[in-house]
């Protein structure tokens, strides 16, 4: 069974980004289908999205505009979308982002 998790770190503050709304979507020709949604916990994590169904292309959509607005901070990227391909239906995929008001970075974690 495929599992997908994420971790958001606020690189500008040097702290986890708590309360970031995140959606997991499939990437289909009809524009995608919502598979799950959550918000990052106090440690900036969503431990698992249960909606992943195996191999295929997915996207994580981070509502960074809400996160920065709630903190009274400006941001340039109100939404971060990370699209990735799951190639092993029995693996765990961890997709973290490092976030600041004017940039973000992502990578495949472990």
UniProtKB/TrEMBL annotation:
Alphabetical list of InterPro entries matching this protein: Hydroxyisourate_hydrolase (IPR014306), Thyroxine_BS (IPR023418), Transthyretin/HIU_hydrolase (IPR000895), Transthyretin/HIU_hydrolase_d (IPR023416), Transthyretin/HIU_hydrolase_sf (IPR036817), Transthyretin_CS (IPR023419)
Reaction(s) this enzyme catalyzes, per UniProt: 5-hydroxyisourate + H2O = 5-hydroxy-2-oxo-4-ureido-2,5-dihydro-1H-imidazole-5-carboxylate + H(+)
Protein name in the entry: 5-hydroxyisourate hydrolase
Keywords attached to this entry: Hydrolase, Purine metabolism
Superkingdom, taxonomy of origin: Bacteria
EC number: 3.5.2.17
Quaternary state and interactors: Homotetramer.
Gene3D superfamilies named among the record's database cross-references: Transthyretin/hydroxyisourate hydrolase domain (2.60.40.180)
Transthyretin/hydroxyisourate hydrolase domain sequence ranges: 4-109
Binding annotation for substrate: 7, 45, 107
Enzyme class: hydrolase
GO BP term, example: purine nucleobase metabolic process
One function term, GO molecular function aspect: hydroxyisourate hydrolase activity
Pfam families in alphabetical order: Transthyretin
Annotated family: Belongs to the transthyretin family. 5-hydroxyisourate hydrolase subfamily.
Record's function text: Catalyzes the hydrolysis of 5-hydroxyisourate (HIU) to 2-oxo-4-hydroxy-4-carboxy-5-ureidoimidazoline (OHCU).
Keyword Iron-sulfur in record: no
